[in-house]
Task: structure prediction
Amino acid sequence: MISKWNYLPLTSEERKIEAQLETRFPKCPAIARLLVQRGVKTWDQAQDFFYPQLSQMHDPFLMRDMDKAVNRLNKALGAKEKIMIYGDYDVDGTTAVALVYRYLQNFYSNMVYYVPTRDDEGYGISIQSIDYAASIGVKLIIVLDCGIKAIGEISYAKSKGIDFIVCDHHVPDDELPPAVAILNPKLKDDKYPFKELSGCGVGFKFMQGFAKSNGITNFYDLESLLDLCVVSIAADIVPIVGENRIMACYGLKRLNSNPNVGLRSIIKLCGLSNKELTISDIIFKIGPRINASGRMESGTESVELLVTKDSAAAYEISKRIDKYNKDRKELDRQITEEANKIIESHKNQIKGKKPIVIYDRNWHKGIIGIVASRLAELYFRPSVVLTYDDNGLATGSSRSVRGFNIYAAIKSTRDLLETFGGHTNAVGLSLKEENIDEFRRRLTDYVETHIETDQITPQIDVDCELGFEEINNDFLKYLRLFNPFGPDNPKPVFVTKNVYDFGTSKIVGKKMEHIKFELVDSKSEEIMNGIAFNMATYFDYIKQHKPFDICYTVEENKHRNSSSVQLQIKGIRIHGDQAAGDGHAS
Result:
């Protein structure tokens, strides 16, 4: 599908700031524009952006209830109470459990960890888990990456003499559970300056608060756990700005230098041992394997992997998890194919601004979130995928498209739902089968009323126009400092106009579907290498030595003693052919 190229404009005030910053980058003025687009206004702010420091992180006691949470934890340790560390079965939840458990192990041993099973207990806090906690004498449960809506369950725990500290980052309702403390920067009256922490990030702030309250000045034990934080940040797709960017920067350093035993085992299994790891490696390689445990079997195995100090044990767990991931990929392929067939046979369902809502009783509950993501990306529609669970309900996941709040959309149908919760981009839900048709109708009405045409149109946001001669060593040096890339700090996209085949470009790939480029532009003699995936249909035009425009990201391929630059082509625009993707917007 041809994408609209959306040039990101600057205001008149931003252009003045850009001009001031350009004086600092005489050999690569495009860097000034990239900084302004990321909210940087001064050279000092640029330095903070380029070189994040742990000292820039906020005081954890700015978060509502942090004092209550720390006091209750200190009381538990003083009274030698049994503590349960409880978390969701996805990457964010299991890394959060591992982080809190491992940090508290430095001071305390009377603890257990618990991850609910997706099939038997479902998402969040289960009555079954509370009964188990009571049976083994637990007096305090620290719940991570879930719990913000568990009013009935936490009330039940109170009746059993069990207190809860909730560490969550999902959108809360007006009514909150009766926990001793709730740590969630999204609470309406919470003054914490940064709202977009992952669940593991909230757990990190809790441990930071605990350390501060006890006068623990050695930050190394906490800093050493940031490899878990960066895995959660990448896998949960939270914005990589503010504190998340600081934790991600230091977490990547740790992941590349001295990751914990379990993560090292996964890295080796992925074939990434000799590579400089990036956010993309976590998203596409490390995260899915950790996630596969909770999707296919039990998230407890992921926690076991992340807390073990035994290399041999880590390797055995990693092998099992890798097998789960292979099984997950096969199920993912099958269900996506079936979902596509349903959609193709009901094309009217996604005409205009309609969302996708599909249901099949036989689909695996652990896979449907991935399928919803694939459908949203493929059809550029908010997508809901539902299956049947053992509680007699249709249960599922939804994913959104850029800029559309799927949480608000799902919330508008809450009277039809048994449960729901999540973020602006992803929501889990359950409802009775007889309500599915009405849910589809009302969700469609909401989406058609609230979504903008641009939000269901494939777009490529372009940061700025660039000449090949500008891709010099200084430019590359500063571009590296924009890492790590992710939501709200995406990898910059550039446009170069009037480029030509140098004469040596060729078609590559098993199905001859990609183009490996050697290009020159109209302003210099620089020859740039590039790769354009699944764009072989443009090859005949390109070989005629006619000019065309490209949008791309700049990639550095690092080898042992050298590195090379390659452009990853995201779009090609043939001159005079509006249908080829001339979506200029300013």
